[in-house]
Amino acid sequence: MGQPSVMLKTKTAVPAYRFDSVKRSHLLEQMNNGLQCRLTFVNAPAGYGKTTLLCQWAHDFSGQLAWLSLDEKDNDLVRFWRYIVHMLTNASSPHLAENMENSMKATSHTSIFSFIDSLLNELATTIHQPLAIILDDYHVISESAIHDSLAYFIEYLPGNCHVYIASRSALPFSTAKWRLRSELVHLTPQQLLFDQAEAFSFCQQVHGLLLSEEQIASLVASTEGWVAGLQLAAISLSTSGNHERFFAKFTGAHRDISDYLFHEVLVQLPQSTRDFLLLTSVLSRLDAHVCNALVGMTGSQQVLAELYRQNIFLFPLDDDQTWYRYHHLFADFLRSQLELTYPGKAYELHKLASESFAARGFLDEAIEHAICACDYPLAVQLLAQHFPTWLSRGEFFTLLRALTSIPDHGQNMPPLLRLLYVFLLIACDQTSLAQAELDLLEKDCQSMPPSAEREQFASGLFFVRANLVFANGDFASWVASSSQLQEDLPQNPLFYHLNYNTTEPFIRRTRFGLKGMLSEETELVGKQFSAILEAHGWQDSLINKYVVQALAEGLYEENKLEESFAFLQKIAPVALQQKIPGLYVPYVLTHARHLLANQAFKEARRLVQEAMEIVTGWSQLYWISPLRAFQAYIALREGDVAWAEAELAKLPRSTFHKPSIHKELEQLAYVRLLLAKQQEADALKILAPLKQIGVREGLLGSQVEIANLQAMALQQQGNKREALAHLHEALVIGAKNLYVRSFLDEGLAMHSLLSAYQQRENSRTEQAPPVISPDYVQQLLELFPKKRARAHGSSFSPLPEPLTGKEMIILSMLGQGASNKQIAEELGNTVGTVKVYLHRIYGKLGVENRTQALLRAQEISLLEAPTSTML
Fold it and tell me: What confidence score (pLDDT) does residue 249 get?
């Protein structure tokens, strides 16, 4: 998640609270009512006391509390949720940020909703008392993706978690369903206005003003109870001393008098204080160090303390009163006065602020101020220094927004940042603009004289163009131009060592792996891309190794085993030497699948066990979980249910609490265990929401595997119709994407299902062409090992309706001489249920009793030979 900065700490700390503030008991009661609801929304324009109310309630709240003060820079989906995690970590769960780190990294190839699923699961398992989550100034958020994700988060919050949002504007997502369910508290602007009693307390307690009832009534009438107006009036009265003169001039609605009141406050302050306020007004957050730089003096801490003591619209952002901000209305007024008093001075001040923040390592703020200063060389220098940090955090939109703010890229940005800009456009799904920018870059590259810089530029263009091809699917044009790219590619690529995978056990599950999409075109592009890199000596670059691994996984899926293994052999040396678990683990699991395809169970088990030891040595413990789950999968392929159960028992219990795309390998291994134990209903409960997530994320391989497991679970239950419906879903995706091993690796139960599917399709009388090509289904059936198929009953048996998986298990136990009672005890069923299954088996075999069933099973090779009786 990266190290939080001081500025980040101030955003997630509850602002300091003035304990002499007026206690607004009726509003605090409403806030307490929010603990019975999902959402409390405090909605009012600027100056209505929203933040003060939240602070007052927060300091009185006895439960766990998380606070986030939002600003315009938070309009980055990853940055927004990174701050949410950080505030929750500080407030309630010390290990939350660590636990969520890999889920956050996975947002590079999964939607934010999968990350939120993981976050909600963590909250459900770690939060055991009321938790209030406060988001202040939400009106600064304009990104629709953030709105959608926050609404999703609120909808699925655990029952003891409650969200409080303060905003000047209406919420940009619907709250109707929460209102109908009485899960919403809404505080309106009218409710936040001060009445006469509160105004009296405010003037007397906070400002020490002894005013008459008539004067208080005049204040309330003129300000209409507007809190900021009352505060301005009180400050003016405190500093002027001439109450009668003030009340004579103080008329009109608060919308007309705010500037007047600000001016009244400002002109009554000493000149040095006025200058301090104007010069520091360009800062969104300020401390003594940056204020000293802007005003050219060393006493800023004392000035800030005095401004706070006088209650002049300055808010401390931490309990140490180190960092502050001005009230938003006051800051706007000061900036307008700065421009009137010192025209053009703001640019100089922004540059000084940028230099001050940069000197202390606060590069986010330094870059923002450099851009506001229109000092683009400085901004570019800082961006070049800071962009790796933003990239590592996944804050692509923040970086893109900063680069977009630099005008005339050709003149103001070096080739590296121009390439980065296009790369970010692609990553942020702005492919049309990326295409136009890339065309301009290629023209500029062609016009550059030969040099090392031009070579690096051309190399980066090749990289970015390839990313655009995979983003927009325009493989044909890339293939057509690949020969030209081969000629132009130099020896020094720029971006080729990005680590594309930090969370996924298979590359084909990532965006880089096209989320499971396979076609002849994608295979050809991948091979050509790798060949170009290898021809220029960059065979060991990470981008090449990830392409090769994706090819190995895809070719395995297509059942091109020899070619897949040839590519796979290129991975291990680099993955091990550079200690890249996101490359090494997919290599190991794909290699293990090859071994399982050849029935080499012990070798597969040893390979995965060795991998667990290696990633442990690298301190990459995140990868132990998927590797251990695959060990359980191997055990189930061998038929060793007890060993599989023991392996899965070593995983944290929270792994199986809630369906999650980040734990899919583990959860599907558990589903397979449930099926092996004939607990089909429990398995189906897990599979249904997992499939919804797979569809939402566009993960084709997940959708096929889950649909196949649903089909096999229903087959075991004897529900043939629904089983074939789920198989059909898998076949639709499989046929479009050259899938083979996803079906073959499921073994006998899948062969039986495919046979039943083929028989059903052959019996159709409709004239319309089938959705699934009969040739595809026939191809899959023919690829199953013939010997295994005969030995266990398949399409080679002359049965009109194949036996289900559970019926095959019972038939096998009959062959071992088990009694009805023994079968019932082994399977966890009643004797009556076993008799029902036996009746179905006899019907399918066309026999009337146990002896005839065994003879018929041996005759059609469902059982190989008579076996001894069970003890």
Answer: 66
Please tell me the distance from the alpha carbon of residue 425 to that of residue 154, in angstroms, as a whole number: 30
In sign, the C-alpha dihedral spanning 242, 248, 254, 259 is negative
Sorted by sequence, the CB contacts under 8 Å of residue 397 that are 6+ apart come out as: 75, 76, 77, 78, 79, 143, 428
CB burial of residue 657 (10 Å; 0-12, 13-18, 19+) = middle
Instruction: Tell me the C-alpha distance between 107 and 15, whole Å.
Output: 31
Q: List the end-to-end C-alpha distance of the chain, in Å, as a whole number.
A: 58
Backbone angles phi, psi at 326, to 5 degrees: -85, 150
Residues 285, 287, 292, 295, CA torsion sign: positive
Q: Which two tokens stand for residue 623?
A: 């990868």
Q: Quote the distance between the C-alpha of residue 127 and its chain's center.
A: 21
In three-state secondary structure terms, 704 is helix
Token representation of residue 6: 């001081």
What is the spatial distance between Cα 505 and Cα 583, in angstroms, rounded to a whole number?
9
Which among 247, 221, 252 has a CA at the least distance from the CA of 236? 247
Per-residue DSSP letters for 203-261?
A: IIIIT-----HHHHHHHHHHHTT-HHHHHHHHHHHHHH--HHHHHHH--S-HHHHHHHH
pLDDT of residue 234: 79
Residue 637: its pLDDT value, please? 92
Query: CA torsion sign, 748 to 754 to 758 to 760?
Result: positive
Query: CB neighbours of 64 closer than 8 A, spacing ≥ 6?
Result: 91, 92, 127, 129, 130, 131, 132
> How far is residue 228's CA from residue 156's CA, in Å, rounded to a whole number?
36
In 3D space, the residue among 77, 54, 48, 76 whose CA is nearest the CA of residue 66 turns out to be 54
Distances (CA, A) of 441 to 422, 446, 449, 494: 9, 9, 14, 15
Closest alpha carbon to 250 in 240, 330, 332:
240
Residues of the chain where predicted confidence (pLDDT) is lower than 70: 1-8, 18-20, 239-242, 248-261, 481-494, 767, 786-805, 860-871
Q: Specify the DSSP class assigned to residue 501.
A: -
Please give the C-alpha separations between residue 345 and each of 279, 288, 293, 294, 853, in angstroms, as whole numbers.
8, 20, 14, 11, 96
State how beta strands 39-43 and 184-187 pair. Answer: parallel
User: How does strand 314-316 pair with strand 324-326?
Assistant: antiparallel
**β-strands 64-69, 184-187: how paired?**
unpaired
Each residue's pLDDT tens digit, 795-842: 334 466 666 667 777 887 888 788 888 888 887 788 888 888 888 888
Distance CA(266)–CA(274), nearest Å, equals: 6
Q: Are 704 and 739 in contact (CB under 8 A)?
A: yes
Residue 280 burial (CB count, 10 A): 25
What is the spatial distance between Cα 646 and Cα 636, in angstroms, rounded to a whole number?
A: 12
Alpha-carbon distances, residue 634 vs 461, 673, 824 (angstroms)? 44, 11, 27
Residues in the chain: 871
CA 782 to chain centre: 41
Q: Which of 242, 205, 239 is nearest to 310 (CA)?
A: 239
Up-side HSE of residue 101: CA atoms within 13 Å toward CB?
13
Question: Could you tell me the strand order of the sheet in which 161-167 lies?
Answer: 64-69, 131-136, 161-167, 39-43, 184-187
If we measure between CA atoms, which residue out of 260, 291, 256 comes closest to residue 276? 291
* 253-274 confidence digits (pLDDT tens): 444 556 666 777 788 788 999 9
Task: Indicate the pTM of the whole model.
Answer: 0.79
Cα distance between residue 526 and residue 470, in whole Å: 10
Give residue 574's identity as a one-letter amino acid code.
Answer: V
Beta bridge partners of 325: 315
CA distance 598 to 593: 9
